Amino acid sequence: MELSHFDDMGNAHMVDVSEKEVTKRSAVATGIIEMQRETLQVILDKKISKGDVLTVAQTAGISAVKRTWELIPLCHIVMIRNVEITFDTCSGEESENKGIIKVTCTIRGEDKTGFEMEALTGVSVTLLTIYDMCKAIDRGMEIKNIRLEYKDGGKSGRFTRGK
Amino acid sequence: MELSHFDDMGNAHMVDVSEKEVTKRSAVATGIIEMQRETLQVILDKKISKGDVLTVAQTAGISAVKRTWELIPLCHIVMIRNVEITFDTCSGEESENKGIIKVTCTIRGEDKTGFEMEALTGVSVTLLTIYDMCKAIDRGMEIKNIRLEYKDGGKSGRFTRGK
Amino acid sequence: MELSHFDDMGNAHMVDVSEKEVTKRSAVATGIIEMQRETLQVILDKKISKGDVLTVAQTAGISAVKRTWELIPLCHIVMIRNVEITFDTCSGEESENKGIIKVTCTIRGEDKTGFEMEALTGVSVTLLTIYDMCKAIDRGMEIKNIRLEYKDGGKSGRFTRGK
Amino acid sequence: MELSHFDDMGNAHMVDVSEKEVTKRSAVATGIIEMQRETLQVILDKKISKGDVLTVAQTAGISAVKRTWELIPLCHIVMIRNVEITFDTCSGEESENKGIIKVTCTIRGEDKTGFEMEALTGVSVTLLTIYDMCKAIDRGMEIKNIRLEYKDGGKSGRFTRGK
Amino acid sequence: MELSHFDDMGNAHMVDVSEKEVTKRSAVATGIIEMQRETLQVILDKKISKGDVLTVAQTAGISAVKRTWELIPLCHIVMIRNVEITFDTCSGEESENKGIIKVTCTIRGEDKTGFEMEALTGVSVTLLTIYDMCKAIDRGMEIKNIRLEYKDGGKSGRFTRGK
Amino acid sequence: MELSHFDDMGNAHMVDVSEKEVTKRSAVATGIIEMQRETLQVILDKKISKGDVLTVAQTAGISAVKRTWELIPLCHIVMIRNVEITFDTCSGEESENKGIIKVTCTIRGEDKTGFEMEALTGVSVTLLTIYDMCKAIDRGMEIKNIRLEYKDGGKSGRFTRGK
Predict the structure, then answer these.
(1) Contact yes or no for B108 and D16 at CB 8 A
(2) Catalytic residue at B138?
(3) C-alpha distances in angstroms, F132 versus C74, D114, F51, F137, F154?
(4) pLDDT digit of tens for each residue in chain D (163 aa)?
(5) C82: closest chain A residue by CA
(6) What is the pTM of this model?
(7) Is the dihedral of CA D92, D97, D101, D102 positive or negative?
(8) Which of B46, B140, B161 sits opposite A161 (nearest CB)?
(9) Which residues on chain D are in Cβ contact (under 8 Å) with C68?
């Protein structure tokens, strides 16, 4: 029985990083969720009936970082040593009278491959959890501007957004 | 031993939907990823070394929809009967010479609670997977405008964005 | 080729509930964690460096309830409609000068089988998360008295502990 | 901004079963693992150092059945009410002096879609676990003949292999 | 657009262990489940209809150890090299005519952070699985005294309970 | 309270690899699925309604490799650095007029224990996904000959099937 080589499909594969060095690496991603000013106020006053929105969202984001390789098919399991998720908020003129929560997710560790996807996944799930907890009062919220701000370590070196 | 009631913490809880009716429900969410025009061309030509980007991203998005309740702490496990994830692309003047992929995720099923979070999670993970597969050539890509476009079914009825 | 029937091993199986009725069901479980009085005070003052212990623990407990069938091999996937996890605390004479947090997990829904394991799993993981967040200051904490307090619904009817 | 419809990729989607009826369904799959006669004897004598092979394999198989939708991208989450995994063994002339363990996985429940994949996944993971526990003494074992034997329920009706 | 720093929420984070050394580590935890003497006898006689209780519980416990980081939000993924779960039983006068199963979970490996939570999680899920398999005959069972007995390795050094 | 040592159960445990060296390791497994010639043609023509079968199957297989330790109870979490899943097809005389897809899964990385189970799990889930996507047109497909072809690294050295 001879098998013809099959060659014309997508060829998805997990990139070979065997020969790369284990180095210290870090990555920072951010994203925002835009909502009614009143919605932001209810979050900050901890009056959302589902609970303390930001702590629950942070817990969900940290848990999701660890599951990035389960969600993104071609990601490696990596050794993460630190996850920080922080919030900034804004609801004045500079945000056109919208309420805005900005999420920053910072990952540190050492591995043969970087943590960009872990940082971006942490931001995304944190934002989705905020949406979930507030959707009963503001279904029109919008998640925006999820992007890598910074990464360091590995052969491709440092990346700083906008530089 | 008498226990004082503890009352001043966040009180996160999964909302009680016991008394709601099982009804047909649907939800549609969208989001975009913005990239260099050249990056989009490489995707459309299926020349990304990690594989056929859109099929892998679609597979990841569908898988993530089913795991929404694992990612978002206060979501219920729901009975999803259909998931569709589709793509539109654009790279002309109307997108300021950026390459844009728009992801639409549609969920149908019947349950006591809606599928908004499932649709939004499907869009998010599809977009993250596109980012992952293309980041070696375009680290500055940005995920934007993740939002609920439509949902139907349940006591709160129909929602159409912008109406 | 004739195969002899193999019959002398453990025969683990997921019990057949096909013929049972879908009925409304509920379950309540409790458990405690015993610690130094000072540890409890630090939790209540929200001064644990890892974050707001009780909200994180509650989030973890609710998430774990949904994953009971992943952890306990012979449990069914069930339709849970409501999860509540609450805390009571005590640190006076009646607890022999120990600090005590009591966790109560209540599950409601409808299915062909009950939610006892979901309630007990929710209590266990909530308590483990409290341990995790405080272990840097009090490694001798002890988890105790995890038990079913009440369950209702299904053919076996109501159970109330101690009755 | 006008988006051209994108249409020439794989179009993976979870089939829409919204309009189908919830009916009683069942599925039976089988598969075998072929090994040295001596390996089978060590299993039956419960002398494998990793533990009681068949009970561990059965536990793994039942757990995997519940996770089929996590493994197979386009499978639905379904309501399984019963899982049975049983073993037959053979090591005489009729198996050409090989040791053979045959695994049968039976699923029952009710849903809008069938349990074929659940039965096949249960068989596969049970067989893989047997391989794992015995590979230290017999790396040449082979998994064979994983197939659907029977399924019933749903619009396509009954299927019996070989009929 | 200026964003005010947001600072007054729980600040949950995964502790930074980047600068710690990878060292050999171990942890031992124990816990018990208390039941009717008759229940214990049925387990030891392997007459529980759901299967061989202790082997299934052990399998569940080992699997849960590996998923500790999924259950406990702020735990790191760690490199576990060995898991042992053992049982001791007792049903005489010294246990006041109750049946008691004591579970001991021992973890070994090397990492930048310890395995206390993995050992405690292994004990908890092993005990919950015993409860699940026996609850049809003894709903009043109680899980007790889950605690860390020993841990070694890392900067904080050795801990032995009661010393 | 004295506890008699309990000793007569299965004693499943995750083998202790603490003292082994971290070495480069690789493993290759293969398996086939046998189907009607017409079914294979429909796959190759990308006319299966569920989508591009081979890319979806490959994505599922790669994802499953990373979850091997979740599926196989006594497997360790290992550091995988590369996963390749490739296809060969055949439908001529040499396969007795059946359509055959052969799946090869190759794993590379470095760890204290090998990747045999990861390669075998990758093959199995890839094959199951092909079955799932085509079962509507060919329920009689059969999965066959899943076996380890090669492994290298570690104390037991190189294994090549048939040598």
Answers:
(1) yes
(2) no
(3) 25, 11, 11, 10, 36
(4) 556 655 455 578 898 998 998 999 999 999 999 999 999 999 998 877 777 899 999 999 999 999 999 999 999 999 999 999 999 999 877 778 899 999 999 999 999 999 999 999 999 999 999 999 999 999 999 999 999 999 999 888 899 998 7
(5) A50
(6) 0.95
(7) negative
(8) B140
(9) none
